[in-house]
Design goal:
Length: 192
């Protein structure tokens, strides 16, 4: 009991510990992520392109570039530009060290391959996404779901394509659907 008497307490507090802190003002790619999540694709894209324009050879610039490409890839999905999305996801994969960006890039590529009826390639991407451990449950669940079942198409299934026209190319063009836009934001609004 006498030890408690020897404790020397501060005479003043550091401030209100129970009060609300000021909300953090988002800037740069954090703001781009927020804008993309809220549906403001144009602003998100502009902010990501601006970040890509600020080039130097530091590790931070490489990480920023990878994240900007990831944001631009998702924006391309929402706006119906799948070829640009694939290119941007691949750039993000080539340069990022962020496990979340790597995992979700694989998951999105898997979804896009599912939409092209390339199931085997899609499963490979989902497996790569699952193998890239980012420690987040949403990532694991999305990758496992992709391995288990194909990403749903809004128009018709891949089996329907083959039945309609057996001579048709087995890889139809990717059609971005309203559901794809919402899916493009799932799990990707918080890459660290």
């Amino acid at each position: 009991m006498h030890r408690a008497r020897q404790i020397d307490f501060d005479k003043e507090s550091d401030g209100e510990v129970l009060g609300r802190s000021q909300p953090r003002k988002l800037t740069g790619l954090d703001l781009a992520e927020s804008r993309l999540a809220s549906g403001d694709v144009a602003t998100a894209s502009a902010l990501a392109r601006q970040a890509l324009g600020e080039r130097n050879d530091s590790l931070e610039a490489v990480a920023t570039g990878a994240r900007a490409n990831f944001i631009l890839a998702r924006a391309a999905l929402v706006t119906g530009h799948p070829d640009e999305a694939v290119d941007r996801f691949q750039r993000a994969l080539a340069t990022s060290k962020d496990q979340r960006i790597l995992a979700w890039s694989h998951i999105y590529l898997g979804r896009m391959l599912d939409l092209e009826c390339k199931r085997d390639e899609a499963v490979s991407e989902y497996q790569l996404g699952l193998a890239t451990r980012d420690g987040q449950q949403d990532t694991r669940l999305a990758a496992e779901r992709g391995i288990k079942t194909a990403y749903p198409r809004k128009d018709k299934g891949c089996d329907d394509d083959a039945e309609d026209d057996p001579a048709a190319d087995s890889s139809p063009a990717i059609k971005t659907t309203p559901g794809m836009g919402a899916a493009a934001q799932t799990g990707a609004s918080k890459p660290q």
